[in-house]
Predict the 3D structure of the following.
Amino acid sequence: MTANNPQHFNVIVIGGGAVGLAAADAAAQRGQAVCVLEQFDLLHELASSGGAERQWRLQYAEEDLARLTIESEKLWTELERRGNRRLLYRTGSLWFGDTTTSNNEGQITAAAKILDKFGLPYRWLDAREIERTYRFARLPGYYEGFVQPAGGMTDVRGTLWLLLEQARAAGVSARGSDRVLDLAPDDDGVSIVTEQSRYRADHVVIAAGAFTNSLLRPLGMELRVKLYEMSTAYFRCLDEDFDYPTWFLFQQPTAEDSNLFYGFGRRPWATGNLVKVAPDFELKELEDPPHAAGTADAYQISRTAEWVTEHLPGLDPAPTNLSSCVISLPEDPSRQFYLGLLPGHERIAVYSSGWGFKFVPLLGRACVQLLLDKRTEFDIARFGIP
Ligand SMILES: Cc1cc2nc3c(=O)[nH]c(=O)nc-3n(C[C@H](O)[C@H](O)[C@H](O)COP(=O)(O)OP(=O)(O)OC[C@H]3O[C@@H](n4cnc5c(N)ncnc54)[C@H](O)[C@@H]3O)c2cc1C
C-alpha cells in the first residue's frame, strides 16, 4: 500500500466483537472481500463480548422479539453445524419473582402469554415449587414464574473463536490492534483511516459496541445510549450432583439499585464446579468512549454475595473469579437495540447496544442484508436508527 493507494474491500467491519465477526462471516458467505478492523487484540475481553457465558432464552414480552429469537435459534444451529461445534446449551431458563415488575429484561406474565401464542412449552411455578425444584430459599410467598426448557446459555468464547475461524476460512482478513480513527462516506464508497493504514470499502458495518458514538459523532449522528460497567462473580456449588438452570429474578427496585439478579448453572463445555451469579444494576454511568475500571465493583459484588447467602444455600457464598464487562444500553429500553442503515449514508450499517448475544448470528446477517440487498428478511422495525 502507498499513501495514495488505500487497501480496498467490498465490506469493512469496524469491531471484532461477536456481532462484527458474525457480520464478517455473513458477508464472506456471500462472496464479498471482507476485512475486520479491531482496535484491541482479536478475541480480547475488554468490551461487551467478554466473559464465558450469556443467557439464551426464547421468551420475550414482545411478539416481534420472541419471533426474532426463534429465527436466531435456526441461525445458531446453522453456525454450529457449519463449524461442527456446540455453542448453545438448552439447560432451561427460569424467570421468577414479582410478576408485577417490568424492566429492561421484560415482564414475566407478558412473556408467558407470548410463549402461549407461539405454542412454546413452559411450566408455571409458585415460590415454594421454585424453592423445592431449584434450591432457592426464603423467597417471598407471592413470587412466581416459569421455566422454559429450550432456554439456557451460550458459549461466548467458543462463539467468537468459531466465527473468527469460519470468517478466516472464507477469506476474511481480520486485523487486531488497528483502531479506526475516521470514516468518510461518499457516493462511491467509504474511506477509512486507522492507526496503521488507510482503507477503502464499498460498504461498512459499524459493530463497535459501546464505542459507536465516537465513530458516529464526526458524521453528525449520535445514538441515545447509556454505558455501564457490569460486574459478575462465580460461586462454588456445594452439591456436585445438582445443577441450576439459567435464571433471572424480577424484583422491585431498592432505593440504591434495581435489585435484579441473574445466574447460570455450570458451563456444560467446561470443567469445574463454579456457577455465575451477577447483579443487573445500572449504576455509575460511564463516559463515551467508556472509561471502564476493568475490575468488578465492590458494591455490586457484595450485594450479590448477600443475595446468594440469603437465597441460594446450595452455593458457597464466597464470590470468586470476579470480573466486569462494559455494556451499552439504549436510553429507551423498549427499542432494545440500534440496527439499521445510517440515515443519509446508505453504505454504512450500524448495530449497537442492548442484550444482543442471543441474536449474534442474526444481527450479523441483518447488517449484511441491509447493505447488499437494502432490506432484511428480519423484522427489525423497532431497532431503526432515527
Ligand atoms: C455483563 C454482561 C452480561 C450480558 N448478558 C447477556 C445475556 O445474558 N444475553 C444476551 O443476549 N446478551 C448479554 N449481554 C450483551 C452481549 O454480550 C452484547 O450485546 C454483545 O456481546 C455485543 O457484541 P458486539 O460485537 O456488538 O460488541 P463488542 O463485543 O463490544 O464489540 C465491539 C468491538 O468494536 C471494537 N471497536 C470499537 N471501536 C473501534 C474502533 N474505532 N476501531 C476498531 N475497533 C473498534 C471494540 O474494541 C470491540 O471489540 C451482556 C453484556 C454484558 C456486558
The helical segments are 18-29, 63-83, 108-118, 127-134, 156-169, 212-216, 298-311, 360-373. The radius of gyration is 21 Å. Residues 14-20, 37-40, 47-49, 54-55, 179-180, 207-211, 215, 230, 232, 325, 327, 354-358 surround flavin-adenine dinucleotide (CB under 6 Å).
